[in-house]
Amino acid sequence: MTAVLTAIAAPAADQQSLIFIWHPGEASRGCVIRLDRDPDGRYTQHREECLSHLASEHTGLPASFILAAYSRFMPFTDPTTGQTLHVVGLEAWAPPRAGTSLVAQNQRAPQGGPYAGAMYAVHDPQGHWCVGEVNGRIQPGMPELVSTYTYALSPFGGQDAARIYLGGYDCNNHRSTDTAWVYRTDVENLLRPAR
Q: For the chain, give me the number of helices (H) and strands (E)?
């Protein structure tokens, strides 16, 4: 299974590439694949990053499963550099040793469960990735957000113009009520893990 295809600027000047995240089932590491078009019309596949590696570094836990790119890779502008970046949401599976405070309460199983914090990944034009977390790193007592499902640049203008809205939750086939969420942050805060 693959996630949504998104067109991005190619490493070669004035060209476009396609980017997506490969999900081969229960062993998904959330590997980001970029397809560059060759002069002969064929495509060269490049694996930019496996988000499981970055999620593990971020959480300090082995992320054995990553589900990412529920929706498109959303472009936005880095206010410091002027570069076009892309954000994508993700969910990570946490092992049993993660403890009850790091796994979503209503989705725990003997083999672990979804990490309770909602992560996102940011891509820069050089193909580098970094991972952050909506509402900061999950701590005991914080809302269990589970996954970042979607995002939008603020349409409201004024003081809200430089903000991004992020929303999500994935029930992962568990019964849940009143779990969907929307958070707002400014672009600088979203990029803090990248700097």
A: 2, 13
In angstroms, rounded to a whole number, what is the distance separating the alpha carbons of residues 18 and 9?
A: 9
CA angle 181, 187, 193 (to 5 degrees): 90
End-to-end CA distance of the chain: 32
pLDDT (tens digit per residue) in 44-102: 999 999 999 999 999 988 888 999 988 889 999 999 999 999 999 999 988 877 666 78
Rounded to an integer, what distance in angstroms lies between the CA atom of residue 51 and that of residue 88?
Answer: 11
| Residue 60 to residue 58: CA distance in whole angstroms | 6
Residue 3 confidence (pLDDT) above 70: no
Q: Which residue has the tokens 């430089």?
A: 162
Alpha carbons within 13 angstroms on the beta-carbon side of residue 188 total 5
